[in-house]
Amino acid sequence: MTDPVTVPERSPEDVPDFDHPRAEAAIRELLAAMGEDPTREGLLDTPARVARAYAELTQGLRQTAHDVLTTTFDLGHNEMVLVRDIELWSMCEHHLVPFTGVAHVGYIPAVTGKITGLSKLARLVDVYSKRPQVQERLTTQIADSLMEILEARGVVVVIEAEHLCMTMRGVKKAGARTITSAVRGTMLTDQATRAEAMALIRSGTR
Ligand SMILES: Nc1nc2c(ncn2[C@@H]2O[C@H](COP(=O)(O)OP(=O)(O)OP(=O)(O)O)[C@@H](O)[C@H]2O)c(=O)[nH]1
Ligand SMILES: [Zn+2]
Fold it and tell me: Which residues cross the membrane (predicted)?
């Protein structure tokens, strides 16, 4: 059985372009299925609008971590870099409704000091968020891509998110936050470094 968390990474060439006419037909059908009249004036443009919205919300399917981790510098900086409270919006693959929260992303650069621009860490979060997702996979994909592409010595990724499928429907538990973490390399083996990263993450005010 395939592990639902570790779906194989597809290269964007293997992902077909977003099929707008097909999505529009599906939305028209969904409106009809819910008992609405897709031909009433207020809904006439809705299928095209929803298709455009979903194209945007799933644009990460057509991007890779390599696309955004392009700018790397050799600064000779060997110490931890951590960006906290990166806002994220993703879409739960079980219900296709949003989950939203923050990601904290930290890494220990390679011995060569290969680092990336700070904004690229936030872009990386977007690449993996803008897909049908589960929070566990989102967390590990961010961590694994940093290890691989930056050849980081260690990585920590913590995501805190609220799932609207648990808030606006189903168990209806507003405010419940799910916390996931992925720890790699020296962050795993060096307890002091991991403790430092976790203390920095916890020192947030949000
Ligand atoms: N592990 C994990 N579960 C998730 C995530 N997003 C949503 N879920 C859960 O996926 C599960 C799907 O459960 P099902 O029983 O198949 O679906 P359901 O009948 O709609 O479940 P309820 O939400 O309990 O009403 C639910 O428990 C959701 O809370 C995620 O990112 N990670
Ligand atoms: Zn869900």
Answer: none
Instruction: Calculate the CA dihedral of residues 140, 142, 144, 149 and round it to 10 degrees.
Output: 170
Structural domain span for residue 20? 13-57
Average pLDDT by stretches of 10, the chain with 206 residues? 63 87 98 98 98 98 94 82 97 97 96 91 98 98 97 97 96 95 96 94 76
Residues 41 and 143 in one domain: no
Token pair belonging to 148: 């691989």
- Per-residue model confidence (pLDDT) at position 181: 97
> Which ligand does the CA of 162 lie closest to?
1
Q: 94 alpha carbon to ligand 1 midpoint, in Å?
A: 6
Structure token pair of residue 89 = 């919006």
Largest CA distance in the chain: 63
For residue 163, report the distance from its CA to the centre of ligand 2, in Å: 7
Q: For residues 89 and 131, is the Cβ–Cβ distance under 8 A?
A: no
Is residue 36 located within the same domain as residue 126?
no
Q: Could you tell me if 19 and 34 are in contact, meaning their C-beta atoms sit under 8 angstroms apart?
A: no
